[in-house]
Write a structure and sequence with these properties.
Shape: elongated
CATH architecture of the domain at 23-137: Alpha Horseshoe
CATH superfamily of the domain at 23-137: Tetratricopeptide repeat domain
Number of helices: 7
Subcellular location: Mitochondrion outer membrane; Peroxisome membrane
Structural class: mainly alpha
Keywords: Membrane, Mitochondrion, Mitochondrion outer membrane, Peroxisome biogenesis, Transmembrane, Transmembrane helix
Largest sheet: none
Strand content: under 5%
CATH class of the domain at 23-137: Mainly Alpha
Distance between the termini: 50 Å
GO molecular function: lipid binding; molecular adaptor activity
Order of helices and strands: HHHHHHH
Radius of gyration: 22 Å
Organism: Lactuca sativa (Garden lettuce)
CATH topology of the domain at 23-137: Serine Threonine Protein Phosphatase 5, Tetratricopeptide repeat
InterPro entries: Fis1 (IPR016543), Fis1_cytosol (IPR033745), Fis1_TPR_C (IPR028061), Fis1_TPR_N (IPR028058), TPR-like_helical_dom_sf (IPR011990)
Length: about 170
Amino acid sequence: MEAKIGRFFESVGDFFSGSDQIPWCDSDIVVGCEREVNEAEKGSKDELKHECHMRLSWALVHSRRPEDVQRGIAMLEASLVDTNSPLQTREKMYLLAVGYYRSGDYSKSRQLVDRCLEIAPNWMQALNLKRTIEDHIKKDGVIGIGIAATTIGVVFGGIVAAMVRR
């Protein structure tokens, strides 16, 4: 019985805390990736430059700092134009979807994940992100309904109290 109660309170806590399975990235990793990109720019092969930019983009959109996330989104959008490979397109769109999710633009994030799934319909990472986005949208809707219902209840209660006092 205690285990069931514990799981119930844990699920309620998860609901309100907004926990998801998308990893976070620390600022020291971002700094390391930036250093790596700077070194690769000094005459390295294009393939190595691309790999370094992708690692930096990954680190930026997974960062806890909103300005890093925005920078990662800008990098990915700029590089998406020059992408010829469907695999690279899929990877960049996925990272863009993570960035938009982290920045709170859930509809844009869902659009990008759907485009990823058009390229690779069974890609588990994209399917998991899509589920996370949809869960977040549902949760926001439930919280919004709760706030609206509470507001209506308070207003209605105030009206009833005012009428009773007369």
